[in-house]
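Hi Q.,

Before the meeting this afternoon, I wanted you to have the TXE prediction in hand. No need to reply - just skim if you have a minute. The sequence and ligand are here:
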Amino acid sequence: MQPSTSTAAPLNQPALQNQSPLNQSPVLTHDEIVSRDPATNQEIGRVPILTQPEIESMIARARAAQTAWVAVSFDERARIITRARQIVLDEMDAIATLISRESGKPVAESVSMEIIPTLDLMHFFARRTAHILKPERIALGQYTIAGRTSRIIYKPLGVIAIIAPWNFPWAIPLGEVVMALMAGNAVVLKPSEVTSLVGLKIKDVFTRAGLTDDLLHVATGDGMTGAALAASPLVNKIMFTGSVATGKRVAAAAAQNLTPVVLELGGKDPMIICRDADLPVAAHAAVWGAFANSGQACASVERCYVHESVAAEFTKLVVEATKNLRQHHGTNEASDVAAMSSERQAQIVDAHINDAVTRGARILTGGKRNHDFAASPDDAHLDDTHNDTHTNLFYEPTILVDVEDAMLVMHEETFGPVLPIKTFRTEDEAVRLANDSPFGLTASVWTRDLKRGARLAAMIDAGTVTVNEVLYTHGLAATPWGGIKQSGMGRTHGKQGLLELVYPQHIHTNRLPRFADLWWFNYTPSAHTLFRQLARRATNGSILQSALAFPAVVRRFLEMRRRK
Ligand code: TXE
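Predicted structure with the ligand bound:
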């Protein structure tokens, strides 16, 4: 496609609405996305914004390809996934650099939080899918005596739409693509407009691994492209990860066609530090959990509750560790914390910090953009063509104390490098504070007493609660990922995640096909007698009681034989 140079697009082109300085990374023109490095504003590529007819065509081709894919054995599917995995391994450095350039994150995290989890996931589902989806027999109790059997087979749904976010542009969609393909589905993936090139790289890897072209499509574009995908009656399931507001829009569009959805939305994840926690370890964990990927993870630590008896020591350790973090461009290997992904996200951080400070919170460190990266007006990468101003997206990791529940930073998702710390007196109070949230994605409890940890974990309302661990379990292929309340519905990863991508077909067989069932027509007096006896004796699981109904069964059986 030809790059667009005109800024005078028709008024009815919705993508133009996004063309504002706040959307510095990326810039949307009327028919393409210009992808930019958030650290430098340098252009790194262009992709088309696909339209509804193009999306419909992709879905139709995916559906046609899926009918052949369903007949391909698990072993053959696994071979393709394993070849793709090898390509990722061979090209790890180039992929990590692309992820860092397009999202802004440190290259260390592109490897540790994006590539390693997907290598593990590819291996896990290549090996385990056949076992997890093997047919299951269902025990039928007394119906077995009557010659009935039931089993479940798992069948692919068809075409899966994956609508992905920008914060983990590789790990989130790639994991879902692998699971969907292994389960026998085709996929149309809509990457975030902020990270389109990473989405296209996923396609490139699978193409070179030998996957039939139409089994995986990448639909680059903006929210309108995602909306077209979500509204299509030809999609069999939508796997959405993103904001609560967009998740609700996707669910509403899906409801028009009764398309099932999995929604992985935001979080306001609490961390509870008990008085007996190992404080240096817990402080280190808090800093990583809050500031990895500049806090732009749905499972980031967004609220820290520490027992009042250890609060001073814990806070001191956290502040020290935070001040030691090195902030550089993401592509610099010495970088712990790099640039945020977009100006819009950085402005949410500004707003939350300003609100907290206005209401009495204190900043112990951070609280502002890092002036070492102030954008200069004669920055070589400024792109006047798009009226785009380069703002500084390097936000300093920020610690807040004296915070109150009413502050935005304590109840709305910040999704940035901010860690508010509040004290508690009793464990019940800590659990109440943790649960006092519209979200329920993950939470963590820190204690040396593992029994206490397990007890508190069970009292917290969240999809995942970790004891003496933080943030990383999205990286475990075998465990379910997902939330409750406004954090969404359904699961990805693990057995539960795989089961979202198939439907259970129940196959019931009467192994005695020569006999009519006793409950069929006609309803004679002996039928009524039998039904009453069955109701009283055969529905409580007792074989002995059921045996008492045997004479009525025989009478009815003989009666039906006579009628034949
Ligand atoms: O996400 P959006 P945004 C949260 C975080 C952040 C906020 C906004 O709090 O501040 O969401 O981020 C596509 N129909 N999270 O605006 O809009 C869009 O193109 C169908 C948490 O970037 O939800 C992109 O591919 N699709 C989160 C995807 O939806 C639509 C990760 C997500 O975009 C659409 C990201 C529509 N009407 C943000 N409109 C997490 N849980 O990790 C947009 N999209």
